[in-house]
Amino acid sequence: MDFSVLSVKDNEWQQIISKSIIYDFHHTSCYHSLETNSEDKALLFVGTQEGNTIALPLLIRKIPQTDWYDATSAYGYCGPVASKSFDEFSPEFIRQFQAELLTYLKKENIISAFSRLHPLMETMPFFNDFGQVLDLNKTIAIDLTLPLEEQRKDYRKSNKSEINQLKKKKGYSVREIHPEELKVFVEIYHQTMDRVEAKAYYYFDEDYFKKLLDNPCFNSRLLVAVKDGEIAAGAVFTLTDKIMQYHLAGTRDAYIRDTPMKLILDEARLLGNELGLEYLHLGGGVGGSDEDSLYRFKSGFSKNNFQFQVWNLIVDQAKYDQLVAQNNVDVTKAAGFFPLYRA
Protein backbone atom coordinates (compact mmCIF):
# COMPACT_ATOMS: atom_id res chain seq x y z
CA MET A 1 0.00 0.00 0.00
CA ASP A 2 1.18 3.53 -0.80
CA PHE A 3 0.65 5.85 2.19
CA SER A 4 0.94 9.62 1.82
CA VAL A 5 0.18 12.76 3.80
CA LEU A 6 -1.19 15.80 1.96
CA SER A 7 -1.62 19.44 2.99
CA VAL A 8 -4.40 21.77 1.83
CA LYS A 9 -1.95 23.23 -0.71
CA ASP A 10 -1.76 19.90 -2.54
CA ASN A 11 -4.14 19.65 -5.50
CA GLU A 12 -4.34 15.88 -4.96
CA TRP A 13 -6.42 16.45 -1.79
CA GLN A 14 -9.44 17.62 -3.74
CA GLN A 15 -8.92 15.10 -6.53
CA ILE A 16 -8.99 12.21 -4.03
CA ILE A 17 -12.06 13.53 -2.19
CA SER A 18 -14.02 14.12 -5.39
CA LYS A 19 -13.41 10.52 -6.52
CA SER A 20 -14.81 9.08 -3.27
CA ILE A 21 -18.02 7.07 -3.45
CA ILE A 22 -19.66 9.63 -1.14
CA TYR A 23 -18.27 12.74 0.55
CA ASP A 24 -19.36 16.07 1.96
CA PHE A 25 -17.98 19.59 1.89
CA HIS A 26 -16.47 18.98 5.36
CA HIS A 27 -13.89 16.68 3.72
CA THR A 28 -12.64 19.19 1.13
CA SER A 29 -9.36 21.09 1.16
CA CYS A 30 -11.19 24.43 0.79
CA TYR A 31 -13.21 23.84 3.95
CA HIS A 32 -10.13 22.71 5.86
CA SER A 33 -8.35 25.90 4.76
CA LEU A 34 -11.23 27.87 6.28
CA GLU A 35 -11.04 25.86 9.51
CA THR A 36 -7.31 26.25 10.19
CA ASN A 37 -5.55 29.13 11.89
CA SER A 38 -1.86 30.02 11.86
CA GLU A 39 -1.13 27.50 14.61
CA ASP A 40 -3.09 24.51 13.23
CA LYS A 41 -2.24 22.28 10.29
CA ALA A 42 -4.79 20.42 8.15
CA LEU A 43 -3.64 17.08 6.72
CA LEU A 44 -5.18 14.36 4.57
CA PHE A 45 -3.89 10.85 5.25
CA VAL A 46 -4.18 8.70 2.12
CA GLY A 47 -3.76 4.98 1.55
CA THR A 48 -3.85 3.63 -2.03
CA GLN A 49 -3.59 0.12 -3.42
CA GLU A 50 -4.52 -1.14 -6.89
CA GLY A 51 -6.51 2.01 -7.62
CA ASN A 52 -8.51 1.85 -4.37
CA THR A 53 -8.19 4.67 -1.86
CA ILE A 54 -9.04 5.49 1.75
CA ALA A 55 -8.50 9.05 3.02
CA LEU A 56 -8.88 10.63 6.46
CA PRO A 57 -8.70 14.42 7.04
CA LEU A 58 -7.48 15.69 10.42
CA LEU A 59 -6.44 18.99 11.98
CA ILE A 60 -3.19 18.90 13.97
CA ARG A 61 -3.10 21.21 17.02
CA LYS A 62 -0.36 22.10 19.49
CA ILE A 63 -1.13 21.05 23.06
CA PRO A 64 -0.58 24.21 25.17
CA GLN A 65 2.59 24.40 27.27
CA THR A 66 4.05 21.21 25.76
CA ASP A 67 6.02 20.09 22.71
CA TRP A 68 3.25 17.64 21.88
CA TYR A 69 0.23 17.72 19.57
CA ASP A 70 -3.17 16.16 19.11
CA ALA A 71 -5.43 15.62 16.12
CA THR A 72 -9.08 16.59 15.73
CA SER A 73 -11.62 16.99 12.93
CA ALA A 74 -12.86 20.20 11.36
CA TYR A 75 -16.19 21.57 12.62
CA GLY A 76 -19.01 19.48 11.23
CA TYR A 77 -19.16 15.91 9.98
CA CYS A 78 -15.87 14.40 8.83
CA GLY A 79 -14.33 10.97 9.25
CA PRO A 80 -12.83 8.81 6.49
CA VAL A 81 -13.91 8.61 2.85
CA ALA A 82 -13.10 5.94 0.28
CA SER A 83 -13.27 5.11 -3.41
CA LYS A 84 -15.70 2.25 -2.66
CA SER A 85 -17.74 1.00 0.30
CA PHE A 86 -15.60 0.32 3.37
CA ASP A 87 -16.96 -3.21 3.68
CA GLU A 88 -15.50 -3.95 0.23
CA PHE A 89 -11.93 -3.32 1.43
CA SER A 90 -9.93 -6.25 2.75
CA PRO A 91 -9.25 -6.24 6.51
CA GLU A 92 -5.53 -6.35 5.63
CA PHE A 93 -5.75 -3.08 3.66
CA ILE A 94 -7.56 -1.35 6.53
CA ARG A 95 -5.11 -2.71 9.14
CA GLN A 96 -2.18 -1.51 7.04
CA PHE A 97 -3.70 1.99 6.77
CA GLN A 98 -4.26 2.05 10.54
CA ALA A 99 -0.66 0.96 11.18
CA GLU A 100 0.77 3.62 8.83
CA LEU A 101 -1.39 6.32 10.43
CA LEU A 102 -0.38 5.25 13.94
CA THR A 103 3.31 5.27 12.98
CA TYR A 104 2.97 8.83 11.65
CA LEU A 105 1.10 10.06 14.73
CA LYS A 106 3.69 8.58 17.10
CA LYS A 107 6.61 9.98 15.08
CA GLU A 108 5.08 13.47 15.16
CA ASN A 109 4.37 13.38 18.93
CA ILE A 110 0.60 13.40 18.38
CA ILE A 111 -0.85 12.09 21.64
CA SER A 112 -4.49 11.50 20.66
CA ALA A 113 -6.88 11.73 17.73
CA PHE A 114 -10.57 12.65 17.65
CA SER A 115 -13.04 12.88 14.79
CA ARG A 116 -16.73 13.56 14.40
CA LEU A 117 -18.07 11.02 11.93
CA HIS A 118 -20.55 11.65 9.14
CA PRO A 119 -24.01 10.23 9.99
CA LEU A 120 -24.85 9.54 6.33
CA MET A 121 -21.70 7.48 5.71
CA GLU A 122 -21.12 3.88 6.77
CA THR A 123 -17.50 3.88 7.95
CA MET A 124 -17.49 1.37 10.84
CA PRO A 125 -15.25 -1.24 9.10
CA PHE A 126 -12.49 1.39 9.11
CA PHE A 127 -12.50 1.56 12.92
CA ASN A 128 -12.31 -2.18 13.71
CA ASP A 129 -9.89 -2.54 16.66
CA PHE A 130 -8.78 1.07 16.18
CA GLY A 131 -9.70 3.35 19.05
CA GLN A 132 -13.26 3.77 20.28
CA VAL A 133 -16.41 4.80 18.40
CA LEU A 134 -19.17 6.27 20.56
CA ASP A 135 -22.83 6.85 19.68
CA LEU A 136 -23.97 10.37 20.56
CA ASN A 137 -27.16 11.98 19.33
CA LYS A 138 -29.31 11.49 16.25
CA THR A 139 -29.40 13.76 13.21
CA ILE A 140 -32.25 14.40 10.76
CA ALA A 141 -32.21 14.20 6.96
CA ILE A 142 -34.84 14.53 4.24
CA ASP A 143 -34.66 11.78 1.62
CA LEU A 144 -34.64 13.71 -1.65
CA THR A 145 -34.92 10.54 -3.75
CA LEU A 146 -38.58 10.20 -2.73
CA PRO A 147 -41.31 11.89 -4.80
CA LEU A 148 -41.98 15.46 -3.62
CA GLU A 149 -45.35 14.63 -2.11
CA GLU A 150 -43.89 11.65 -0.23
CA GLN A 151 -41.27 13.96 1.27
CA ARG A 152 -43.91 16.43 2.38
CA LYS A 153 -46.00 13.65 3.96
CA ASP A 154 -43.15 13.22 6.44
CA TYR A 155 -43.58 16.81 7.67
CA ARG A 156 -45.18 17.38 11.04
CA LYS A 157 -48.80 18.42 10.41
CA SER A 158 -48.31 21.83 12.03
CA ASN A 159 -45.30 22.48 9.76
CA LYS A 160 -47.39 22.10 6.62
CA SER A 161 -49.99 24.64 7.73
CA GLU A 162 -47.38 27.10 9.07
CA ILE A 163 -45.43 26.99 5.79
CA ASN A 164 -48.63 27.68 3.85
CA GLN A 165 -49.45 30.60 6.16
CA LEU A 166 -45.96 32.09 5.80
CA LYS A 167 -46.43 32.22 2.03
CA LYS A 168 -50.11 32.99 1.62
CA LYS A 169 -51.11 34.99 4.69
CA LYS A 170 -47.92 36.51 6.08
CA GLY A 171 -46.33 37.53 2.78
CA TYR A 172 -42.95 35.80 3.01
CA SER A 173 -41.00 34.68 -0.03
CA VAL A 174 -37.67 32.90 -0.43
CA ARG A 175 -34.89 33.73 -2.88
CA GLU A 176 -31.12 33.59 -3.16
CA ILE A 177 -29.28 36.45 -1.53
CA HIS A 178 -27.83 39.24 -3.67
CA PRO A 179 -24.05 39.67 -3.21
CA GLU A 180 -24.44 43.19 -1.79
CA GLU A 181 -26.76 41.82 0.93
CA LEU A 182 -24.19 39.47 2.48
CA LYS A 183 -23.31 42.01 5.15
CA VAL A 184 -26.98 42.08 6.22
CA PHE A 185 -27.06 38.29 6.56
CA VAL A 186 -23.86 38.28 8.64
CA GLU A 187 -25.45 40.82 11.01
CA ILE A 188 -28.55 38.60 11.33
CA TYR A 189 -26.36 35.55 11.89
CA HIS A 190 -24.40 37.33 14.65
CA GLN A 191 -27.67 38.49 16.22
CA THR A 192 -28.73 34.83 16.31
CA MET A 193 -25.41 33.79 17.90
CA ASP A 194 -25.98 36.47 20.57
CA ARG A 195 -29.47 35.15 21.22
CA VAL A 196 -28.34 31.55 21.73
CA GLU A 197 -25.22 32.65 23.66
CA ALA A 198 -22.89 30.86 21.24
CA LYS A 199 -19.17 30.44 21.85
CA ALA A 200 -16.77 32.92 20.21
CA TYR A 201 -15.76 30.30 17.60
CA TYR A 202 -19.19 30.51 15.90
CA TYR A 203 -18.98 34.25 15.16
CA PHE A 204 -17.76 33.84 11.58
CA ASP A 205 -17.01 37.10 9.76
CA GLU A 206 -18.06 38.30 6.31
CA ASP A 207 -14.82 37.10 4.70
CA TYR A 208 -15.46 33.57 6.02
CA PHE A 209 -18.93 33.54 4.44
CA LYS A 210 -17.55 34.86 1.13
CA LYS A 211 -15.11 31.94 0.97
CA LEU A 212 -17.81 29.49 2.00
CA LEU A 213 -20.05 30.73 -0.81
CA ASP A 214 -17.37 31.01 -3.50
CA ASN A 215 -14.63 28.39 -3.65
CA PRO A 216 -13.41 25.80 -6.18
CA CYS A 217 -14.25 22.73 -4.05
CA PHE A 218 -18.01 22.83 -3.52
CA ASN A 219 -21.11 24.88 -4.29
CA SER A 220 -23.13 26.79 -1.72
CA ARG A 221 -26.41 28.68 -1.81
CA LEU A 222 -27.51 31.32 0.69
CA LEU A 223 -31.31 31.38 0.74
CA VAL A 224 -33.14 34.22 2.47
CA ALA A 225 -36.73 34.72 3.57
CA VAL A 226 -37.96 38.21 2.73
CA LYS A 227 -40.99 40.10 4.03
CA ASP A 228 -41.95 43.62 2.92
CA GLY A 229 -38.55 44.01 1.29
CA GLU A 230 -36.59 43.14 4.44
CA ILE A 231 -34.49 40.01 4.96
CA ALA A 232 -36.01 38.18 7.93
CA ALA A 233 -33.83 35.06 7.95
CA GLY A 234 -31.22 33.23 5.93
CA ALA A 235 -29.33 29.96 5.72
CA VAL A 236 -26.26 28.65 3.93
CA PHE A 237 -26.74 25.30 2.19
CA THR A 238 -23.74 23.44 0.81
CA LEU A 239 -24.09 21.19 -2.24
CA THR A 240 -21.56 18.40 -2.53
CA ASP A 241 -21.84 15.18 -4.50
CA LYS A 242 -25.03 13.55 -3.15
CA ILE A 243 -25.54 15.71 -0.05
CA MET A 244 -27.15 19.09 0.57
CA GLN A 245 -26.19 20.33 4.02
CA TYR A 246 -28.09 22.89 6.15
CA HIS A 247 -24.98 24.58 7.50
CA LEU A 248 -25.18 28.06 9.07
CA ALA A 249 -28.39 30.01 9.62
CA GLY A 250 -29.87 33.01 11.38
CA THR A 251 -33.20 34.76 11.97
CA ARG A 252 -33.70 38.42 12.79
CA ASP A 253 -35.03 38.89 16.34
CA ALA A 254 -38.14 40.71 15.12
CA TYR A 255 -39.24 37.69 13.04
CA ILE A 256 -38.52 34.84 15.45
CA ARG A 257 -42.19 34.16 16.26
CA ASP A 258 -43.03 33.60 12.59
CA THR A 259 -40.21 31.00 12.16
CA PRO A 260 -39.51 31.91 8.51
CA MET A 261 -36.71 29.31 8.57
CA LYS A 262 -39.42 26.69 7.97
CA LEU A 263 -40.17 28.23 4.60
CA ILE A 264 -36.44 28.42 3.76
CA LEU A 265 -35.99 24.71 4.52
CA ASP A 266 -39.03 23.82 2.42
CA GLU A 267 -37.64 25.79 -0.53
CA ALA A 268 -34.16 24.27 0.00
CA ARG A 269 -35.72 20.82 -0.24
CA LEU A 270 -37.23 21.72 -3.62
CA LEU A 271 -33.86 23.06 -4.80
CA GLY A 272 -32.12 19.86 -3.71
CA ASN A 273 -34.65 17.84 -5.70
CA GLU A 274 -34.13 20.02 -8.75
CA LEU A 275 -30.35 19.49 -8.53
CA GLY A 276 -30.67 15.71 -8.22
CA LEU A 277 -29.19 15.40 -4.73
CA GLU A 278 -30.02 12.46 -2.44
CA TYR A 279 -30.23 14.00 1.03
CA LEU A 280 -30.90 17.34 2.67
CA HIS A 281 -29.09 16.82 5.96
CA LEU A 282 -30.44 19.09 8.70
CA GLY A 283 -28.11 17.96 11.52
CA GLY A 284 -29.05 17.47 15.15
CA GLY A 285 -29.71 19.38 18.33
CA VAL A 286 -27.43 21.63 20.36
CA GLY A 287 -24.61 19.88 22.21
CA GLY A 288 -25.69 16.38 21.28
CA SER A 289 -29.26 16.60 22.54
CA ASP A 290 -32.21 14.73 21.04
CA GLU A 291 -34.62 16.66 23.27
CA ASP A 292 -33.88 20.36 22.75
CA SER A 293 -35.91 22.82 20.69
CA LEU A 294 -33.49 22.74 17.73
CA TYR A 295 -33.79 18.97 17.36
CA ARG A 296 -37.59 19.16 17.66
CA PHE A 297 -37.62 21.88 15.00
CA LYS A 298 -35.59 19.76 12.58
CA SER A 299 -37.52 16.55 13.27
CA GLY A 300 -40.66 18.35 12.07
CA PHE A 301 -39.34 17.93 8.51
CA SER A 302 -38.53 14.23 8.42
CA LYS A 303 -38.80 10.99 10.33
CA ASN A 304 -35.42 9.87 8.94
CA ASN A 305 -32.87 9.96 11.72
CA PHE A 306 -29.24 8.87 11.58
CA GLN A 307 -26.77 7.99 14.31
CA PHE A 308 -24.07 10.60 14.95
CA GLN A 309 -20.83 9.08 16.24
CA VAL A 310 -17.37 10.20 17.30
CA TRP A 311 -14.03 8.40 17.19
CA ASN A 312 -11.48 8.60 20.00
CA LEU A 313 -7.94 7.25 19.74
CA ILE A 314 -5.25 7.43 22.41
CA VAL A 315 -1.90 7.20 20.61
CA ASP A 316 0.41 7.42 23.64
CA GLN A 317 -1.34 6.33 26.85
CA ALA A 318 1.53 7.33 29.18
CA LYS A 319 1.76 10.89 27.86
CA TYR A 320 -2.05 11.13 27.74
CA ASP A 321 -2.28 10.18 31.44
CA GLN A 322 0.55 12.58 32.25
CA LEU A 323 -1.34 15.48 30.64
CA VAL A 324 -4.56 14.58 32.48
CA ALA A 325 -2.66 14.59 35.80
CA GLN A 326 -0.76 17.83 35.02
CA ASN A 327 -3.99 19.64 34.16
CA ASN A 328 -5.70 18.47 37.37
CA VAL A 329 -8.69 17.19 35.43
CA ASP A 330 -11.61 15.99 37.53
CA VAL A 331 -12.13 12.72 35.67
CA THR A 332 -15.58 12.20 37.20
CA LYS A 333 -16.92 15.60 36.12
CA ALA A 334 -15.29 15.40 32.69
CA ALA A 335 -16.52 11.88 31.92
CA GLY A 336 -17.28 11.59 28.21
CA PHE A 337 -14.99 14.48 27.21
CA PHE A 338 -12.15 13.65 24.84
CA PRO A 339 -9.30 14.22 25.08
CA LEU A 340 -9.64 14.47 28.86
CA TYR A 341 -6.65 16.79 29.26
CA ARG A 342 -8.50 19.51 27.30
CA ALA A 343 -11.60 19.33 29.53
TrEMBL record:
This is Peptidoglycan bridge formation glycyltransferase FemA/FemB family protein. GO terms for molecular function: acyltransferase activity, transferring groups other than amino-acyl groups; aminoacyltransferase activity. InterPro entries: Acyl_CoA_acyltransferase, FEMABX, GNAT_dom, PG_Glycine_Bridge_Synth. The lineage of its organism: Bacteria, Pseudomonadati, Bacteroidota, Flavobacteriia, Flavobacteriales. The keyword Cell wall biogenesis/degradation applies. Gene3D superfamilies: 3.40.630.30. One of its GO terms (biological process) is peptidoglycan biosynthetic process. It comes from Sinomicrobium weinanense. SUPFAM superfamilies: Acyl-CoA N-acyltransferases (Nat). Keywords: Acyltransferase, Cell shape, Cell wall biogenesis/degradation, Peptidoglycan synthesis, Transferase. Pfam families: FemAB.
